[in-house]
Design goal:
It is a single chain. This protein is mainly beta. The chain has a single domain, classed as Porin, CATH 2.40.160.20. Helices cover 10% and strands 67% of the residues. Strands 1, 2, 3, 4, 5, 6, 7, 8, 9, 10 and 11 form an 11-stranded antiparallel β-sheet that branches. The longest helix has 20 residues.
Length: 208
């Protein structure tokens, strides 16, 4: 946990430092919203799961309508699907519900398509870095239910990295963002599976 939080703090501090030293406008805000997450890879017949996110943001205005955006958010992801479970030496088909909680740091570069007093419309894209901090994965089967920690030995790896893109609007001090994220690395601890996070989101926020 400490190994992950340290680079998060450093990255956030660098953004603030660059803005201050270059005397560029730097603004902070908060946001919250809904996730619709799933997984990609070689797992078939999975369904999306509703989650949420809440976080703080930092925006650094650049010349010619460009900007950089970062922050730190608590976000929930996961999926629903079919698989199997082993309980008391007996294997059975099972319905799976995976819930994963992450601390996530996005780094987005953006461009303001429309920039008017009290209104801007923008597009943005960039990487994200996430660290799993909790969650449960539930298996429901004819031999009984089983619950595992989502980031335990036979479930998911804690670290995730991916790319995200989105469109946003800022009206006075209020923000709305619609986006999509896709993981780039296999987060399964079981070698025979290839699992990558997928997440669509809608957030609303406020800039101070």
């Amino acid at each position: 946990m400490k190994k992950f939080l340290k680079p998060l703090v450093v990255a956030f501090a660098l953004l603030v430092s660059v803005g201050a030293s270059a005397q560029l406008p730097l603004s902070f805000g908060i946001n919250a919203g809904m996730n619709l997450s799933n997984v990609g890879g070689d797992i078939d017949d999975t369904d999306a799961k509703v989650g949420f996110q809440v976080g703080v943001t930092a925006d650094l205005a650049l010349p010619m309508n460009f900007f950089l955006q970062s922050g730190l958010s608590f976000t929930t992801k996961g999926y629903k699907g079919n698989g199997f479970v082993l309980k008391d030496g007996v294997a059975s088909d099972a319905d799976i519900t995976s819930n994963a909680m992450y601390l996530q740091l996005p780094i987005r570069a953006g461009y303001k398509l429309v920039s008017l007093p009290g209104l801007n419309l923008n597009v943005n894209a960039g990487p994200y870095f996430a660290h799993g901090i909790g969650g449960k994965t539930k298996y429901e089967s004819r031999i009984g239910d089983v619950k595992n920690d989502t980031f335990s030995k036979y479930e998911l790896k804690r670290f995730d990295v991916g790319l995200g893109f989105g469109v946003g609007a800022e009206i006075t001090k209020f923000t709305v963002n619609l986006g999509y994220e896709f993981g780039l690395i296999n987060i399964s601890k079981v070698d025979v599976y290839d699992i990558k996070n997928r997440n669509a989101f809608l957030t609303v926020g406020y800039k101070f």
